[in-house]
Amino acid sequence: REAASVQPSLEARAEQGCAGSGGAELPDGRLSSLPESLLLTSHRIFERFDEHRKTLDLIHADIFDPRPAVALSALQALRSLSDIRSLPVLARLLSRSSGEVRAAAVRALENIRVPKVTAFLLKISRSSRDEGLRQEVLTVLAKVAPSSEEVVSLLHGAYHSSTSMTATRQLAARLLVRIGGEDVLRQLLPGATGALLDCLIQAGIDEPGLHPAVIAHCAPLFPRLSPKSRELAVTTAAAQNHPQSLGVVLAAMTDIDAE
Length: 259
Fold this sequence. Notes:
Blueprint: H1 2-19, H2 36-49, H3 56-62, H4 68-81, H5 87-94, H6 99-107, H7 115-127, H8 131-144, H9 149-160, H10 166-180, H11 182-188, H12 194-205, H13 211-221, H14 227-238, H15 245-253
Helix pairs in contact: 1-2, 2-4, 3-4, 4-6, 5-6, 6-8, 7-8, 8-10, 9-10, 10-11, 10-12, 12-14, 13-15, 14-15
């Protein structure tokens, strides 16, 4: 009975979306009276079948729904549809939301790889004091504009900043390794210590193509590595036919930290 009662509403909503809603100036939360399950189902339908993006205005209205599940579902749909017309609406949402919804609004931009999105995210990264939001922005920027000198400079700034949270600095390290590969390892490993050193080692090991570079740099750094990073280095070295592999294994054998 419940399914039968929802179906007509879902069909009406689909027809409304296919017809277009007639403009971007939709009242926030206009559709909040509709059942949550209907809205979530419609988002999955729209993101899969709306090739011509006729339902954008409906989804744009739903991201302002006061129910978090509805807003997050609509943002996931926008992330899949990846339309530049969503940028001003997402910017409006970012100015008045917080927490998980705000982070999802940033992630909704990750597949729209145009300069306007990059510029918008760079502006947020420089002005926001929300460390969690900054982390989301850094992650998306590394996806949408990995070759941008401005983005790379921003990541280096976050990595070297003594005022950033450790989690933000570690994220910047991982993103830099993903973008710059061995050049980044060569540049950052000699001066890295503690959690940042561990993070760089792990980031290199997470990229199979960088295993030889990790081994080469781990050999001279071995005494400074944490037990966890030493274990990772030895395991990686033992699996690689690399000139420095023996040096890493021998360093482990003479390590006073027996475990």
